[in-house]
């Protein structure tokens, strides 16, 4: 029995040692496997919260400021320049009604005085003719009265001829009637002549009145006044210079009548007019001068009559709404921003959030979910998209080469997008 126990005891000890050693080996391997297993990568990303609303892009183009109205002030009354407006210089601003150039009015004032004097003489002659006509009518009336009396006397003499009246007395009365008739005829002819001369005098008065008006116009034309508040585009006036008739002295463009002309491609023009007219649309205009561009508002008021052959687009004209201050000049190169057509039920996202036809949002357990979208328009560094997005969805804006469903991410507060950072969990 003792011998059997002595024989079994070493075997038990060896088995126990083997089991303990095997356990140690298995436990170490498990710990090593646990220590060498790779940790899941978590990517630091930026995101924007989706806002579902009506969005519209801004179409940008370059254009030119053009004058809606201009005026060439030409000299109608030639002569020597005696006055020039102090602000009359290229690029200067002049107010409506301001005297820009004055021609020596001496000769024109004299011509006006002479015309008025001749008119007064003609009017006096007309009044004299009217007096003669009145006298002639009076003479005619008296002559007719005397003819009537002589005729009655002749009739009585003829009736009494068989009595006490002799033939000689009757003949004398007939001669008197004839003389009275001649006096009536002369008075009538004289009156008709005076009336004709009065008509001629009145015609002369009409001509002289026109001469006076012409002289007044010529005197007024010695002053070249600004027809509107404008910018001096060109001027050739100087004190002492002699202008000939029809010489251009000043060229003005209306300061508050400027337009912006720009070109829209057929595709852009078609998008803008889809469903509505472009006329009346407000646009933003930036005049790129100095450190800070000057911005204005303009209203589209007309469209070009045909497609421009040199640009292949449509000319669009917008009337500038100009506040007080620096005014753009005709020919200025400007940038225009035209609101595109609206897109309801859409979201605005940075272009970095686009992965072709889808975006990624941060879903449950901070893992990415693929959301299909349709790009409706692009607006600079942003895009307007539509898809099954919900308000508040966190749209990832960081570019991820490994982006895909289920990718673990962590949103961080960054001002700009960049490469994703990997962080072990």
TrEMBL record:
Which UniProt keywords are listed? Coiled coil
Q: Which GO terms describe its molecular function?
A: efflux transmembrane transporter activity
UniProt keyword Hydrolase present:
no
Keyword Coiled coil included in the entry's annotation: yes
Which stretches are annotated as coiled coil?
112-160, 184-225
Spell out the SUPFAM superfamilies in the cross-references: HlyD-like secretion proteins (SSF111369)
Q: Which InterPro entries match?
A: RND_pump_MFP (IPR006143)
What does UniProt give as GO cellular component?
efflux pump complex
Q: Which NCBIfam families match?
A: RND_mfp
Q: Which protein family is it in?
A: Belongs to the membrane fusion protein (MFP) (TC 8.A.1) family.
Q: What is this protein identified as?
A: Efflux transporter periplasmic adaptor subunit
